[in-house]
Task: structure prediction
Amino acid sequence: MLARLADTRARRWGVRIVALGCALAVVRLFLPWWCGHDAGAWFRGDPEIQHQLAAELVAFEASDEAHRASGDNRFAGEWALVTHQMVALGLAQLCLAHPTWKPELAPTVTTAAANSFRLEMRDFGTRAWKGEDAMASLPSDHGHAYLAYAALALGMARLVDPAFPPELARQHDALIAAYERRLLASETGLIETYPGEAYPTDVAAVAAAIAVHGRVTHAPHEPVLRQWADRVRARQIDPSSGLVIQRMDATTGAPHDAPRASGTGLAAYFAGFADRSVAELLAGGVLRQLAVRFGFGAIREYADGYQGEIKGDIDSGPVVLGVSVSATGFALAPARAFGHEDAFVELYRTTDLFGLPFEDGDRRRFAIGGPIGNALLMALLTSGPELAP
Result:
């Protein structure tokens, strides 16, 4: 009797183990396939899937939500500005990739760029500079590099929209002239974002804005862009990891933070507008941080030998087991722009798993992340047409 009972229990445990093994095998094989089934379409630039997400962002810019002020929190203000900027960049990249879409999308590119440049969208920067507005202080040597995000969006709007407002173009010209003068005067290739704070990623946005302005106006910006590129290579990249230092002293170039992947990934995207070789260099650094498990890719925030906030910060997003949410998303852009298809697919699987994309009629959105998540992914997933020659 006891022998038969033991045999029955053994068979039951055997069935359970086999069932568990089958379930794990299904998850191991099916989940990566399911989460990556759109990756090839995004990598190839499939017009249908691109247009679906574009329709979501066009609707966002037409909504009341797009016009809400950023509030008192600096980080909320930064992300409000970045949301409009990335809408403009993503849709402008689609206009470059699909010129016949310009009549449909270019007006929204200008709307999004103008929204990023609105006075209330930069309140956070004005408060950080103790009441000094970036546009009111153009003759000064104060960096105000955060407004380069809007300046880049304005440049891309001017590039694709023949109806871009002349008054906005004049303000854009004045801001670019101030950035060029400040960057030429910098021995480190850095200008301040906030008093005492310089971020190579933000300065990459400055260089990108200057470069796109040159494409639009044919202004001779090559000297400042060459100087910036030389300073990035010589002063801003950690030679052991290939990552840019996250925060530095604008005057001395002394590091105030570690080299990190989140800043490097976004800097690689921005550098693509200004200097292809710098962008490729940064892309190599961030993709060396790629960790892959079961077909899902993620980017480690810190290189070996460095350690930072275990939970992450506003730049990295949550850091889980050493990998950064922001860096993983930002790395999609250089992976696509420079043809790293395997890395792109692996990163996209993770984005799909946690972003939860779904279709809603003729529109597509990512359920997690809200407007800024959709705006960022629009720009990052369509990166490539913006690359400097």
Notes: The CA atoms of residues 312 and 319 lie 5 Å apart. Residues 1-34 form one domain. Strands lie at 290-293, 296-300, 312-313, 317-320, 323-324, 357-360, 363-366.
